[in-house]
Specification:
Blueprint lengths: L2 E8 L11 H4 L5 E5 L7 H14 L2 E5 L17 H21 L6 E2 L10 H14 L4 E5 L3 H8 L4 E6 L23 H14 L1 E3 L5 E3 L4 E4 L6 H15 L2 E2 L3
Parallel strand pairs: 1-2, 1-9, 1-10, 2-3, 3-4, 4-5, 5-6, 6-9
Antiparallel strand pairs: 7-8
Helix pairs in contact: 3-4, 4-5, 6-7
C-alpha cells in the first residue's frame, strides 16, 4: 500500500490582508506549515491557524522565512549562515509558544521561499538551528536538496518533500517562478504527476527529462489560486488509486 503525508503552507494572512482558503484546505491535509510572522502571518493568525490545525487533527509545523513581509519572503537576501541560523531559531521559538499553549507538539518545520535548500551553508545553518531548539522536530526538505542530504547525514529527522503544483529543474530544485511553466495550474496534470511520484518514484522535469524522486510528504501551496481544488481532487484521486494519506 502506497502512502503519503499531505502538507500545505497556511497562516499566511496578516493584519487586514487575507491569503488562501485555510479554513477549507485544513480539512484535507495531514500537516499544516504555519507562517511565523516574517514573510507572512502575525500573532493573531498564528493563534487561529494552530487552533484550527489542532481541531482537524493536522500536525503543526513552523514555516520560517526571511524578514521580508513586503516581498512575501521570495526576494533574495544576502545573509550569512550564522544570521540565518538565528532567524530560524527565532521563528521556531515563536511557533513553539503557540503550540505549547494548545498543548500540542511542534511537529515539523519547512523553510520558506528564498531560504534556498540547495545552499549548503544555509542547509547547515537550518540543521544547527533545529538541533539546538529541538531535535525531535522533523525537517521537511525538498527531495534531493542539500538540506535533505545534510539533515540526514547529521542524524536529524527528515521528510523528503515533493510538490503537487511546482515544476522541477533537473537537479530536483523548484523551477523559479519567473520561468514559463514553473507553476502547474492544470489539476489533471498535477494529479497525474502526484500519483506517478508516489507510486513510481518518477517525475518529468521542466526540461522534459525523466527524473527519479522519492517523497515522504506532498506539498500543495496554500496561496495558489487552485490550492483548494488541488487538495480536494488529490484526496479523491489518491483514494481511487489506493494511496493512503496520513501523517508522519
Amino acid at each position: 500500500m502506497h502512502s503519503i503525508d499531505l502538507n500545505s503552507d497556511l497562516g499566511e494572512s496578516f493584519g487586514a490582508y487575507k491569503l488562501g482558503c485555510d479554513e477549507e484546505i485544513i480539512k484535507y491535509v495531514t500537516a499544516a506549515n504555519i507562517a511565523c510572522g516574517w514573510h507572512a502571518g502575525d500573532p493573531m493568525v498564528m493563534t487561529k491557524t494552530v487552533r484550527m490545525a489542532k481541531e482537524h487533527g493536522a500536525d503543526v509545523g513552523a514555516h520560517p522565512g526571511l524578514p521580508d513581509l513586503m516581498g512575501f519572503g521570495r526576494r533574495k537576501m544576502m545573509v550569512s549562515g550564522e544570521e540565518l541560523k538565528s532567524y530560524v531559531k527565532y521563528q521556531l521559538g515563536a511557533m513553539s509558544a503557540f503550540t505549547r499553549a494548545e498543548k500540542i507538539p511542534l511537529h515539523h518545520m519547512v523553510p520558506h521561499g528564498a531560504i534556498s535548500q540547495f545552499n549548503e551553508e544555509w542547509a547547515h545553518a537550518i540543521c544547527e538551528a533545529v538541533g539546538e531548539v529541538d531535535d525531535n522536530i522533523i525537517i521537511y526538505a525538498i527531495a534531493g536538496s542539500a538540506l535533505d542530504k545534510i539533515a540526514r547525514a547529521e542524524g536529524l529527522k527528515v521528510a523528503s518533500e515533493i510538490f503537487a503544483d511546482r515544476a522541477l529543474m533537473d537537479d530536483l530544485s523548484l523551477a523559479p517562478r519567473s520561468m514559463p511553466g514553473s507553476m502547474i495550474t492544470d489539476e489533471d496534470i498535477a494529479i497525474e504527476r502526484c500519483i506517478r511520484m508516489v507510486k513510481e518514484g518518477r517525475v518529468t522535469g521542466l526540461s522534459g527529462k525523466e527524473l527519479e524522486i522519492q517523497g515522504d510528504t506532498l506539498c500543495v501551496h496554500g496561496d495558489g489560486p487552485k490550492a483548494l481544488a488541488f487538495v480536494r481532487k488529490i484526496s479523491e484521486a489518491f483514494r481511487q488509486e489506493g494511496i493512503q494519506i496520513h501523517g508522519i
